């Protein structure tokens, strides 16, 4: 992999990891439209996901500090919300790998993500508090988003908003919930393919920095568009991309 490839993949990862457009869905589509497309190595994939995880940690550093020092309940809620994705990843990994081969199913799932984005804008902000039950339900939404084409931010924010939780609050919870999910998923990948790892220090560093910067920026975009009720623009994009795939791929 060359430096330009590392840079582009880092930018793509940083943008699609948090914007409600499904990073996995874009990967499936890329596999089907780019000639001789090859996925980046497992270690490079882990490096990029570490970068986006650091983006969340840096962006929410003050909140994370407060949680660690004085909010044990929030830690418990993050644990509860992480359970569904952990179970889903452990017991259904083989099924998930097969889903990455079905581009038409991915297109329909992208269109579903688009509909969720439109619906998120329609919800009024309410002040229901996050509890263990709601955390678990949001965790289920996060687990479902492992399916290519389903966006984690769209599915979790939609679920929380539907349950009556303030959008900004549920968005923060969604981002923080992504930390154990991303780290856990990539730890499983690392363990599974640990004997077939290649390391290219400079190229990986370029990808890491790009994913970190664009991941940080995409978090800001999500929170801003959520506040302004502009998730519909992501909805238009997902619907258009899904229709394009169904018609032409």
TrEMBL record:
Q: Which N-terminal residues, if any, form the signal peptide?
A: none
Its BP terms in the Gene Ontology are:
cell wall organization; peptidoglycan biosynthetic process; regulation of cell shape; response to antibiotic
- Gene Ontology CC annotations of this record: plasma membrane
Q: Name one GO molecular function term.
A: undecaprenyl-diphosphatase activity
Q: What is the E.C. number?
A: 3.6.1.27
Its localization reads: Cell membrane
Report membrane topology: Multi-pass membrane protein
Q: Where are the transmembrane segments?
A: 40-62, 74-93, 105-123, 135-158, 170-190, 202-219, 231-248
A Pfam family it matches: BacA
Q: Which UniProt keywords apply?
A: Antibiotic resistance, Cell membrane, Cell shape, Cell wall biogenesis/degradation, Hydrolase, Membrane, Peptidoglycan synthesis, Transmembrane, Transmembrane helix
**Catalytic reaction(s) noted:** di-trans,octa-cis-undecaprenyl diphosphate + H2O = di-trans,octa-cis-undecaprenyl phosphate + phosphate + H(+)
Q: Does the keyword 4Fe-4S apply?
A: no
- Record's superkingdom? Bacteria
Q: What class of enzyme is it?
A: hydrolase
Query: In UniProt terms, what function does this protein have?
Result: Catalyzes the dephosphorylation of undecaprenyl diphosphate (UPP). Confers resistance to bacitracin.
The entry's family comment says: Belongs to the UppP family.
Q: What else is known?
A: Bacitracin is thought to be involved in the inhibition of peptidoglycan synthesis by sequestering undecaprenyl diphosphate, thereby reducing the pool of lipid carrier available.
Protein's UniProt name: Undecaprenyl-diphosphatase
Q: Which organism is it from?
A: Candidatus Woesebacteria bacterium RBG_16_39_8b
Which gene produces this protein? uppP
